[in-house]
């Protein structure tokens, strides 16, 4: 029996009539949405017609092509087959246009296109709109305001702090290996780099490495890396409303809270310090301020201080960017050196001749370790800590080979694939530091661990100093070798991680 909406028969009839209307409306909406998605996909297929990629399913995209632990390696097969760039379909009309060619990278990084909404929006609840996620005039103002925090005179004073943090980590390792010579590096190195950034940028007194509370921040960052990446790949997790209701959404919310508690505490402590007598005077006398003091003392163009929200976003951004990237860099470099004992020994000899027992490492030493620097760069090539970055095209683009894309397309610069592209690097999987020997010729955009152009990494010099200090002091104290039963599997989260940790064998040198 059918009940017409127009002829309700009592309360039951009106309820079922209403249900029919709702069903009908939902169907119409669903059809409209499907038509919209169909048209968008057709438009995209047309826009991308010059850029082939393997056949994709209209709904599941290229999902069937990839296994989670083989993604990076598998994509490299595409790099060999499809020159310069290709689209990788995620689902429906959702895709990432992957670029892995230096000429293409040069064109993209030379333009002022903003950061794309996807995937960066998933970072917002955690790090807010700080330098990494801001665009336009506000980004420009913040970049200008924060650049002096990375002035040469300031960076110089950080070398001592970096060395002290590294020594604390090495002391811990020395104790640990009396029980078990195999150590999982990533967590120790993360704590060490967090310790360093806390002391350098946030004037923190004390040692994070010895304080158990900070482990929860490191754990939260680890979880957020994983959660954001799995959200990116899951069609059902795109809506904030739905995501919040899922177990992953709740875990992500909790991890953000833990991360915020950590940064709020840092701001609170420094504000309290600045209330103490004479502290403001000390700051006024300083020629260059620390990062957090710049933020706390900042006056914007309108004469107001930085809002609490902006201040928090910058602290959250630098707390994350300033330690997770360098932790990835150092861990993978040490792994690469463990895999190549001859290069490891050559670095060690260079450092021994420079530092002797290494009791004192200074700024001047950092430019006098050419072989070690070449090895660090080669490891950053094979294991770039930031594997991908994205932009959205604010106007059409034409690449040097004549192919073009319309406005609105999201472009992902796949740094990992660029660094492994056999058309750019011969035998890309071979660890060969001589690629970075002085005088060796490279395309200006073939090696981009820190990106390039106006939105390059503001912490590049800070990071390179920290990598050098950590590698030098570690090699002076330990001989590193692999754990053949637990070789790391690189995985592209926001930062390059290993699915199963980075386990190395440590032998104390006499
Ligand atoms: C080995 C270590 C590091 C690597 C490989 C690295 C890499 C990068 C890359 C590729 C970008 C561009 C991101 C994009 O376009 O979306 C970037 C931006 C950025 N990095 Fe780093 N980074 C490292 C260390 C650091 C450190 C130590 C800090 C802070 C102390 C830092 C702070 C930032 C910030 C704030 C941005 C955004 C800059 C802007 O858009 O103006 N990074 N980094």
UniProtKB/TrEMBL annotation:
<keyword id="KW-0256">Endoplasmic reticulum</keyword>
<keyword id="KW-0408">Iron</keyword>
<keyword id="KW-0560">Oxidoreductase</keyword>
<comment type="similarity">
    <text>Belongs to the cytochrome P450 family.</text>
</comment>
<feature type="transmembrane region" description="Helical">
    <location>
        <begin position="120"/>
        <end position="140"/>
    </location>
</feature>
<dbReference type="GO" id="GO:0016712">
    <property type="term" value="F:oxidoreductase activity, acting on paired donors, with incorporation or reduction of molecular oxygen, reduced flavin or flavoprotein as one donor, and incorporation of one atom of oxygen"/>
</dbReference>
<dbReference type="GO" id="GO:0005789">
    <property type="term" value="C:endoplasmic reticulum membrane"/>
</dbReference>
<keyword id="KW-0812">Transmembrane</keyword>
<keyword id="KW-0472">Membrane</keyword>
<dbReference type="GO" id="GO:0020037">
    <property type="term" value="F:heme binding"/>
</dbReference>
<keyword id="KW-0503">Monooxygenase</keyword>
<keyword id="KW-0349">Heme</keyword>
<protein>
    <submittedName>
        <fullName>Cytochrome P450 4A11-like</fullName>
    </submittedName>
</protein>
<keyword id="KW-0479">Metal-binding</keyword>
<dbReference type="InterPro" id="IPR036396">
    <property type="entry name" value="Cyt_P450_sf"/>
</dbReference>
<dbReference type="InterPro" id="IPR001128">
    <property type="entry name" value="Cyt_P450"/>
</dbReference>
<dbReference type="InterPro" id="IPR017972">
    <property type="entry name" value="Cyt_P450_CS"/>
</dbReference>
<dbReference type="Pfam" id="PF00067">
    <property type="entry name" value="p450"/>
</dbReference>
<dbReference type="InterPro" id="IPR002401">
    <property type="entry name" value="Cyt_P450_E_grp-I"/>
</dbReference>
<feature type="binding site" description="axial binding residue">
    <location>
        <position position="457"/>
    </location>
    <ligand>
        <name>heme</name>
    </ligand>
</feature>
<keyword id="KW-1133">Transmembrane helix</keyword>
<dbReference type="InterPro" id="IPR050196">
    <property type="entry name" value="Cytochrome_P450_Monoox"/>
</dbReference>
<dbReference type="GO" id="GO:0005506">
    <property type="term" value="F:iron ion binding"/>
</dbReference>
<dbReference type="GO" id="GO:0006629">
    <property type="term" value="P:lipid metabolic process"/>
</dbReference>
<feature type="transmembrane region" description="Helical">
    <location>
        <begin position="12"/>
        <end position="32"/>
    </location>
</feature>
């Amino acid at each position: 029996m059918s009940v017409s909406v127009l002829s309700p028969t009592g309360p039951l009839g009106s309820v079922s009539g209403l249900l029919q209307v709702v069903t009908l409306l939902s169907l119409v909406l669903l059809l409209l949405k499907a038509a919209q998605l169909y048209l968008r996909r057709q438009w995209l297929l047309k826009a991308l017609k010059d850029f082939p990629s393997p056949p994709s399913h209209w709904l599941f995209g290229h999902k069937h092509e990839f296994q989670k632990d083989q993604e990076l390696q598998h994509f490299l097969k595409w790099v060999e087959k499809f020159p310069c760039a290709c689209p990788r379909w995620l689902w429906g009309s959702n895709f990432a246009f992957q670029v892995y060619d230096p000429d293409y990278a040069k064109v993209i990084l030379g333009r002022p296109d903003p950061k794309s909404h996807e995937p960066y929006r998933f970072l917002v609840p955690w790090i807010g709109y700080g330098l990494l996620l801001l665009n336009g005039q506000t980004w420009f103002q913040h970049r200008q305001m924060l650049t002096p925090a990375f002035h040469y005179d300031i960076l110089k004073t950080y070398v001592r702090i970096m060395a002290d943090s590294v020594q604390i980590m090495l002391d811990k390792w020395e104790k640990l290996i009396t029980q078990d010579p195999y150590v999982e590096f990533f967590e120790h190195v993360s704590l060490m780099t967090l310790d360093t950034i806390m002391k350098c940028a946030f004037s923190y007194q004390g040692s994070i490495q010895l304080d158990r509370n900070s482990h929860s921040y490191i754990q939260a960052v680890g979880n957020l890396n994983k959660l954001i990446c799995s959200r990116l790949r899951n069609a059902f997790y795109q809506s904030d409303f739905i995501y919040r209701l899922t177990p992953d959404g709740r875990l992500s919310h909790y991890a953000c809270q833990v991360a915020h508690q950590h940064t709020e505490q840092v701001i609170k402590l420094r504000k309290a310090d600045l209330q103490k007598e004479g502290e403001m005077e000390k700051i006024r006398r300083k020629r260059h301020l620390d990062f957090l003091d710049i933020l706390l003392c900042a006056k914007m163009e309108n004469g107001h201080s930085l809002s609490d929200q902006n201040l928090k976003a910058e602290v959250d951004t630098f707390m994350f960017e300033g330690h997770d990237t360098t932790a990835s860099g150092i861990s993978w470099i040490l792994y690469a050196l463990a895999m190549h004992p001859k290069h490891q020994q050559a670095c060690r000899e260079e450092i021994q001749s420079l530092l002797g027992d290494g009791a004192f490492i200074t700024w001047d030493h950092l430019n006098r370790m050419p072989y070690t620097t070449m090895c660090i760069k080669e490891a950053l090539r094979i294991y770039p800590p930031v594997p991908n970055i994205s932009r959205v095209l604010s106007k059409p683009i034409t690449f040097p080979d004549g192919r073009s894309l319309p406005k609105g397309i999201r472009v992902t610069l796949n740094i990992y694939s660029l660094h492994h592209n056999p058309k750019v690097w011969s035998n890309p999987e071979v660890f060969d530091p001589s690629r970075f020997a002085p005088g060796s010729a490279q395309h200006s955009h073939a090696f981009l661990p820190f990106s390039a152009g106006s939105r390059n990494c503001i912490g590049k010099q800070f990071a390179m100093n920290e990598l050098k200090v950590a590698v030098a002091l570690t090699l002076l104290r330990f001989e590193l070798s692999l754990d053949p039963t637990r070789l790391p599997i690189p995985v592209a989260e926001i930062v390059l991680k290993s699915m199963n940790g980075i386990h190395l064998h440590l032998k104390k040198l006499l």
